[in-house]
Give the backbone structure.
Amino acid sequence: MKWILITLLLIHGAIHLLGATKGFHWADISELTIPISRHSAIVWLVTALLFFSAATLLIRPMHIWWIPAMLAVILSVYLISTTWQDARWGMIPNIIILLISLVGFGQWRFDRQVAHAEQILIEAPHSGLKNQEKTTLPPIVQKWLERSSMPEESLQYVRVHQEGTMRLSPDGRWMPFTAKQIITPRNPGFVWSTKTTLIPGVFFLGQDHYKQGKGQMLIHVLGLIPIVNATGPEIDQGALLRYLGELVWLPNGALHPAIQWQEINKLTASATMDTGDISAAGTFTFSPSGDFLSYSAKRYFDRPDGPTLEDWLIEADPLSIRKMQGCQIPTRFRVIWKLAEGDFHWLDLKITDVEYFYAHTEPSEN
């Protein structure tokens, strides 16, 4: 799709060069029967250069490609209106480029919103409370922390890159997605952003936030049309449960003083986190060697008649465990709703990269 658009921009730009060629008398263009003044020739040339600039920015790639593309379309529409008899068919590519440019604008705006939310989360002051000692945790949790080999340094945040498939109903079609996530352990929170393809050419952009004990879910079709903006106690509880489960990617975050661990048996421990307004608890299961296997909790499941509290399960693939930036973590997961009417396996997730940023390091570019 990207290269089709680039080709369209280049061809449409080249066609506008014909107007400049005729106006500057560089060559005789018989296809253009209407005279073109030197002033108009300058506009034709500028329009062509704007289309070429948009194509170049797409190739690089740079998300602001839509700016010269929209400007080019505006000028092109003006030029076509002055040479309608000869150039009226040029309106078709202009409409196509305009629609795709609007989608490009939506993606750019979404990316800026995500970057702003990430910056706020990363720079938020934390309590400064001292972490728990490992020796106070259940033995299996201690073994997990040791097995993860995560450095003892103060972790500022982790950036997780993801891909996978999801579906919206038990019999729904699997849809591919890519995502990235910022997670902060010192001031517990995360910003998760995703691009999910509904059908070729149609996608939705989503954000899940959790900070200062509050969650929020946002979904926009093509980055332009808002269809979900969910907040409230159920979203807060789900976001907090999710934060606890995703400690698997930053094991030392389990030492935060707000997380209370309790041994259930030799391979299982519960974690409870209380933010003051809401409390959530989940159960972690590990292998005898200390590898993370699963996480389960009671989480609100959205239904037409209102949310119901259901069993929610994250299962790791034991064969996917490997070291990433010095920390041993599982990289493949299944997420399943354990409903009374049957299991709803709705998400398959793969971690493609993990970046750890410690308090003494500078963050890298997104």
